[in-house]
Amino acid sequence: MTGTAMMPLAPAAAAQSATTAPATITFAIEAQSVQSALARFAEQSGVQILFPYDRVAGLRTGGVKGRMSAEAALGRLLSGTGLRVNRSGGGVIALSLPASAKPPQPMRTAALRTVALTPAFQQAQVSDAQDPTAPTADQVDEPASDIVVTGSRGQPRTVVDSPTPIDVISGAELQRTGKSGVFAALNTLVPSFNLPTRAGGGTSTVIATGGLRGLNPDQTLILVNGKRRHKTSLINAVSNYYNGSVPADLDMIPTAAVDHIEVLRDGAAAQYGSDAIAGVINVILKDDAKGGFGALTAGQNMDRSDGELFQADLNLGLPLGEHGFVNLSAGAKKQQASNRAEPIASNIRLYPLVNGALDPREATIDRLVTSNYGSMPQESITTALNAGYDIGTVELYAFGTYGQRKSDLNYTYRPATNANSLPQVYPNGFYPRVVISEEDYEVAVGARGVIAGWKWDFSSTLGRNRSRQRADRTINASLGPTSPTEFYVGSLISKEAVNSLDLTRSYPVGAGTLQVSGGLQHRIESYQVVQGEPASYAAGTYTSSLGRPTPGASGAAGFQPSDAGFVKRNNLAAYADIAWDPSRDVTIGGALRYEHYDDDSGDTLIGKVNARYAVAPWIALRGAASTGFRAPALAQQIYASTTGQFRTIGTPPTLNLLQIKTLPVGSPAALALGAQPLTPEKSTNFSAGLVLTPLPRLSVTVDGYQIKVEDRIAITSTLTGNAVSAILVANGQSPDISAQYYTNAIDTRTRGVDVVATYRHPVGTIANLAWNLGYNYNKTIITGVKANPPQLAALGADYVLFDRLSRSNLTVNLPRTKLFIGNVATIDAFTLSTRVVRYGSFKSFGNAVINDRTFGAKWITDLELSWRTTDSLTVAVGANNLFNVYPDRNDTLTNVNTGAGFYATSGAYGFTGGYYYGRVAVNF
User: Fold this and answer.
1) Hey, CA dihedral for 517, 518, 522, 523, is it positive or negative?
2) DSSP 3-state helix, strand, coil percentages of the chain (rounded to 5)?
3) Judging by beta carbons within 10 Å of its beta carbon (0-12, 13-18, 19+), is residue 761 exposed, middle or buried?
4) Quick one: which of 158, 170, 559, 580 has the fewest CB in 10 Å?
5) Which is more confidently placed, 590 or 51?
6) SS3 of 587, please?
């Protein structure tokens, strides 16, 4: 992945841009080689320097002595060397040489410790899509490698120097995708990341549920500015993909606030804690102290001219006093519905017979009865703040986000022939709807500095997500015609508070440096289910001429008093992390982490080792081995809900609309069906790879991996039938529901390979081209399945804890391969961004082999053309899925009663065809 492109600066440019008097430092650097002089500068200033180590061989610099600013000292050291300040900020300065000097070599780190930079070094980073003064093709210097802080505590490195694979996605790249959210953008930019267009029914259609390396979304840890992000309160329940996961929702962060994203594709639980089995996604917020931009985007689907999307983004940087900054961002989005259903056949009755004959209304009713086979309406407003202030020896910082989102869940049409469609209330049938109103916030405050050579960082974060659910256009028909048609269904509330102390220090050891880090963390988590109003779940006695209606609000019955609950737990963690660079060609690292939970998750000790060896200046080997864990989410322990879902059951298989209840693990009904307390998932990760830099501005990484997960938490098969109903009734549940619950169901093994390549080059004096290539192969198999508990085994062979359909959702229902080739071409004021993505074939299995289906691979083309009309105004037009490609159609999957279901949704590229948009952006 390419990162943020920087305008090369003259050696003294950083000092010249200072608006305040920088702190002074006593320097004593003798005249010597540039390599050693920069190392001494790093020691004495506390600033980390990245520079092309081999290219400066033979260059010397004059001495610097006396008390002066770090900017002035660096300017003297660089004078006459040809080195330029290519990038600065975040405690790191990257230097480069003009392309004409010598063949470029990989960047090297020459710092023993890092501290917060003085404001004079905190240059605003300008994205490659927004920089009105970008160099022309014949002025391009050697590009500095992306500097990352994820994966190695206290030791920023370049991507190619990292001992584990990391992708860096700039904010400009996110915007160029034309996607409306962070997760959707990552789906086309990170080869091993998959985001099914529609994860399933119920609340699964609201949350962004993308997974890394074939694992569940909650097996990837989400960080913001290096701090743990809280989880959503909405569980991914009653769905086909990533079933039962409880992830953090990045769509609650405005895209305008994102400077860049670092995606660590390797197990990192020993470094960062629970959830980092598949890797880490670290969102770095913008910290510009001046300037900003505003953008308006609008678009719609080509087919049926639906799915209109309107989005506004704003970012503003402001100075805070003499030594600080405040960066503010906001985003507003309105998504309209799209629908790919088709009219149902005229021989399907939608009204009861009248004296044995068809109701005359059958001839006039609109037979496009399904309106929710596509994206559903959603509106959101999100905001973000990032601030910092340097008071000399200590830097204070704060950041946070706040968002509100309203999502419509439109449920399947209930025709007048349905027992719940009381003719006195809904003579033509009805469309139940649940409206989810979310409020989400996270705030972090902290301080960092240096004491006795130790860099310290103390922080506190608090995050909360509340989803309030209301149902309308529905009815609890069991109460009869007097039933309300609007209900308060209930609320879900998730909270997380974290206090962290992190320490790090570098020591000279041998010819290199040893980075030592350690820390403590205390985390409090809570989860609450708030019951709905009584009418939303009541079981009345009314019976119509069409039969006994289903109790509760049709579509989404409310949370009952027995469903309501509150659970809380504490977590204490301690870690130690080391990274040793005995020479510029070798890196060795290791980490240990101990965590204690005060619930059934108990204690765990995990570890990680990694290493990198540069065989030659253009090739390096790297590898890692680690153990990991993921504690059960609190939501998985107490979540309870009842929703209507279609399930294929029986022999021959038939499609049925079932009322499926997710039972809390500790409830009497779940225990009677064999539920047991949830325990942590445990993982073992191995990875090995190559880093190649055979040509200037070309880097290629190839990384293979294996991830074993034991006791993986999943939701059971849908348990239905008379025997199950008898158990449910005996434990206070309705006889009209089917059941499921969460359990440590399976062991899995995932193997795969990632290939990422980037190449930048000019085309004479005409254009600059930046190429990206990514490829992922990923295969998951199930190595063990938990035996049926005695309670289910006693019911007979038809009752299986984890059936064939549920297993296929983990193994074959997502594309096994993904390949993308992207290019950004800049010609004067025009930028053309193109991206071609090949999503591999995938399958859909049923419990009966006769229902198995295979869907072929598809090529999806995205394009955006932007024109910088002035230094401050840019207009762009683009298309996602330019050629209007759809998944393979399979009419055997069609539900004849709804006119939907013929497209599989797990291809990760949608089933609504091409989307076209325009954007106007203003920089200031």
Assistant:
1) positive
2) 10, 45, 40
3) middle
4) 580
5) 590
6) strand
Tokens at 370, concatenated: 């399904």
CA distance 251 to 22: 38
Q: Convert the pLDDT of each residue in 878-894 to its tens digit.
A: 999 999 999 999 888 78
Q: Tell me the C-alpha distance between 426 and 101, whole Å.
A: 79
Neighbours of 85 (CB within 10 A): 26
Beta strands in 598-741 (DSSP E): 603-616, 619-630, 641-649, 654-662, 681-692, 698-715, 737-740
CA-wise closest residue to 86 among 75, 94, 74, 77? 94
What is the rounded distance in angstroms from the CA atom of residue 181 to the CA atom of residue 331?
A: 10
Q: How far is CA 381 from the centre of its chain?
A: 19
pLDDT of residue 136: 38
Amino acid sitting at position 39: A
Q: How many residues does the chain have?
A: 924
Element counts in the chain: helices (H) and strands (E): 12, 45
- Torsion of Cα atoms, 272 then 278 then 280 then 281, to 10°: -160
| Residue 497 CA, distance from chain mean position | 20
Among 695, 689, 637, 693, which residue's Cα sits nearest to residue 666?
Answer: 637
Tell me the CA end-to-end span of the chain in Å, nearest whole number.
27
**Half-sphere exposure of 883 toward its Cβ, with a 13 Å CA cutoff?**
10
Collapsing DSSP to helix, strand or coil, 183 comes out as helix
3-state secondary structure of 182: helix
Distance CA 829, CA 318 (A): 28
Closest CA to 146 of 131, 161, 163: 161
pLDDT in tens, 231-272: 999 887 656 667 778 889 989 999 999 999 999 999 999 999
User: Does residue 53 carry a pLDDT above 60?
Assistant: yes
Omega before 163 within 30 of 0, i.e. cis: no
Q: How many Cα neighbours within 13 Å face the side chain of 223?
A: 24
Cα–Cα dist 289/292, whole Å: 9
Confidence label for 153 from pLDDT (cuts 50, 70 and 90): low
Residue labelled with tokens 């609650």:
252
- State the DSSP code for 881: S
Tell how strand 654-662 and strand 737-740 pair up. parallel
Cβ distance 536 to 471 under 8 Å? yes
DSSP 190: -
Give the CA distances from residue 595 to residues 262, 522, 551, 677, 681, in Å, rounded to whole numbers and listed in that order.
25, 10, 44, 19, 14
The whole-angstrom separation of Cα 443 and Cα 251 is 16
CA distance 67 to 555: 73
The conformational region for residue 901 under phi > 0 = left, psi -120 to 50 = alpha, else beta, is left
pLDDT at position 545 is: 87
Between helix 34-45 and helix 70-78 the angle, nearest 10°, is: 180
Q: Are 361 and 234 in contact (CB under 8 A)?
A: no
| 665 within 8 A of 715, measured Cβ to Cβ | no
Question: How high is the pLDDT of residue 346?
Answer: 93
Query: Of the candidates 589, 565, 561, 559, which has an alpha carbon nearest to the alpha carbon of residue 577?
Result: 589
d(CA 573, CA 592): 11
Q: Which amino acid is at 507?
A: Y
Distance CA 754, CA 733 (A): 48
d(CA 748, CA 731): 33
DSSP label at residue 361: G
Q: Looking at residue 76, what DSSP letter applies? A: H
Beta strand ranges found along 790-897 (DSSP E): 817-827, 830-839, 842-844, 853-855, 858-868, 873-880
Q: What is the DSSP letter of 799?
A: -
Pick from 140-154, 452-466, 468-482: least confident: 140-154
Lowest model confidence (mean pLDDT) among 165-179, 185-199, 756-770: 185-199
94's tokens? 């990257």
What does the block give as tokens for 400? 């946070």
Of residues 108 and 881, more confidence is placed in 881
